[in-house]
Amino acid sequence: MTALFSAAPSYCSRFGVAILLAALADFLFYGQPAGITVFLFALLIAAAVVAVHPAAFSDGRVWLKPAALLLALLPLAENVSALSVSIALAALVVFALSLSGRLRLSIARIAGQITLFGLAMPFRFASDFIRWRKTARRFGWRRVRLAAIAVWVMPLTLGAVFLALFGAANPVIDYWLSLIDLLKLLDLIQLARIAFWLFVLAGVWAFLRPRLPRLVRRIPRAAPAAAVSAQAEKTAITIEDILLGKAAILRALVVFNILFALQTGLDATYLWGGAALPDGLGYAAYAHRGAYPLVVTALLAAGFVLAALRPGSETSADPLIRRLVYAWVAQNIMLVISSILRLDLYIDIYALTYWRIAAFVWMGLVAAGLTLIIARIALGKSNEWLLSANLLTLSLTLYAGCFINFAATIANYNVDHSFEMTDQGISLDAWYLRSLGPGAFPALDRFLEHQSRTPAANDPVFRQLAGLRGSDEGWYRTLQQNWRAWSFRDWRLLGYLDTKGPFVVPDRTEPHVPGR
């Protein structure tokens, strides 16, 4: 009984904080654009987590946790995107688990905890409520609560009767009652809004009571039977030696190094050396066909190295095998670099897109992962160290990506390398540029201003695009009038638009005739 009464205030206080956060989320987000409000709401969640875990701040170095959290939330102030929101959620999970004393120290284990937390988050509020109700029912709280509700039936009923009588007797009270429109009150009940509140409650509750799901414990391995024959054991060892023994791995590494040297030589000849390709094969096709399969090849090679050179195994201690592995991984790194060059050649011909930028980033991460494999073997580290190092590299890459305006990068590259601006390459897909959103406004303006000085200004398609550019800016400025949509990136873009002035569709121009 004492445990229930001690837990009840904790549940009630957390529920009150969750209701307050849901009300603030309603004010900040419901029917409103997302901007700086996401950053502010993340700070509110962090403050609420601190409020329900005051004992965690007895440590003198506890200020490091809020400082690290603020650093992780900065991408939200720069720009709200799926990437910045994901980083903020992961940081809030780590912050909540650390204050509750449930955070593991290894980066690999932290990643697993974040995944488990995310899987359990939608169900935490419902499971805690059911558990609390069962505990209350066990200690007889149901009767107390029903009695507490029942004592209000008579006062409220008679109060309503007296209020109706007073309304009939007093015109002022009758006027006040006439202002109450029950139908209007019913209209305020919106299913979408109720769903929004429940969604927010379920989300913030997981941070206020950070718990990880209890997974099924591993089934203990059965003890080996006493009657295992020596012949069967000898057969098992022999099969392992044949398939993954030192001799098999040594031969595999020799064959793999030869094959990869052939591929590396071809890339050095055609990509780096500029030799002429066979008839019917262009550089674009050569680049496009090889970029992605070579990355898959490198990933398979990394898996083989990890399986063959397990820490403490006989193969990992063999000097010759280690040298062959170093050579093979180095060739894999060269393959990834060649893939990056292939993709760059392809983009020179067919322009830049979001997916091609993602491919660049992915290839860079693969090259970094292969380098870390060499470091793991050379330093004698564990596979957990390798996983943690790769997760740290990925996290830093994603964090840095939050501050890069990819829409502006794509738009500027495509405009600067278009046929219209350089008289070579392919024509600019201006409609794709427009689909990139406001971040493409500066590059699109340069393109339209350049085209307005050419006979293309009389093209109906150009004039339609120029007109839509003006309407897009009007829509964007209207959206930015709401303070909730503010971000540092939008603030910089508005500064550019204010300096440039409103976009105006250029007047029709006469075709340029030489000699005039």
Provide a descriptive summary of the structure in words.
It contains 22 helices and no strands. The protein has helices at residues 2-29, 36-52, 64-78, 82-99, 107-138, 141-150, 153-169, 171-178, 182-187, 191-208, 230-244, 246-272, 283-308, 319-350, 354-379, 383-401, 406-416, 419-422, 430-435, 441-452, 460-480, 488-500. The longest helix has 32 residues, at 107-138. It is an all-alpha fold and 516 residues long. Mean pLDDT is 76; it is low at 1-9, 216-238 and 511-516.
Please tag this protein with its features.
516 residues, mainly alpha, flat, disordered N terminus, disordered C terminus
Proportion in β-strands: under 5%
The biggest sheet amounts to: none
The overall number of domains is 3
Structural class: mainly alpha
Principal-axes shape call: flat
- Given as residue ranges, the uncertain stretches (5+ residues, pLDDT < 50) are 1-9, 216-238, 511-516
N/C terminus separation: 99 Å
Summarize the structure.
The chain is mainly α and 516 residues long. The protein is built from 22 helices and no strands.
Describe the secondary structure blueprint for this structure.
Layout: H1 2-29, H2 36-52, H3 64-78, H4 82-99, H5 107-138, H6 141-150, H7 153-169, H8 171-178, H9 182-187, H10 191-208, H11 230-244, H12 246-272, H13 283-308, H14 319-350, H15 354-379, H16 383-401, H17 406-416, H18 419-422, H19 430-435, H20 441-452, H21 460-480, H22 488-500
